[in-house]
């Protein structure tokens, strides 16, 4: 399928597995230059090699945790430097641990807010200057469906 993305520059966070990996794979198959990200440097470098050899597209990797202060800005800046710009930002992160409402303390809730809201907001904010330079800027945010619809545990 040709989605008209050939040559576009994309950053996909949380892309060592799951939806993030599938998104990075799809963008690579469409001919995008893709920067993948995960907190696990070894794993994301393996993803870089795998996607690059599988799709023939240029794939870069950045190992950093999006919940750490300053990391979203660093990730976006490094990705834009490596790709000479940014057209597509896909903010993706793993979900919080499952469990009953009463089983979580304030620190658990704060960690979930950092992971599922603030990290996405910080990534978008950091990417805006680069996306404003793009003629095809896009942002896709992937988060848990439980944000919209509560699920057991």
Can you give me a brief rundown of this structure?
This protein is α/β, with parallel strands linked by helices and 153 residues long. It has helices spanning 18-29, 41-55, 71-83, 106-131, and strands at 9-12, 33-38, 59-63, 88-92, 138-142.
What structural class do the secondary elements suggest? alpha/beta
Order of helices and strands: EHEHEHEHE
Give the end-to-end Cα distance, rounded to a whole number of Å: 38 Å
Q: How would you write the strand order of the largest sheet? A: 3-2-1-4-5
Helix-residue proportion: 40-55%
Radius of gyration: 16 Å
Whole-number mean pLDDT: 92
Shape: globular
Secondary structure: number of strands: 5
- The tally of helices reads 4
Estimate what percentage of residues fall within beta strands.
Answer: 15-25%
Unreliable stretches: none
Largest sheet: 5 strands, parallel
Can you offer a commentary on this structure?
The protein has 153 residues and is α/β, with parallel strands linked by helices. The chain contains four helices and five strands; from the N terminus they run βαβαβαβαβ. The protein is 43% helix and 16% strand. Helix 2 links the parallel strand 2 and strand 3. Helix 1 packs parallel to helix 2 and helix 3 runs parallel beside helix 4. The longest helix is centred in the last third of the chain and has 26 residues. The protein is globular and about 50 Å long. It starts with 8 loop residues before the first strand and ends in an 11-residue tail after the last strand.
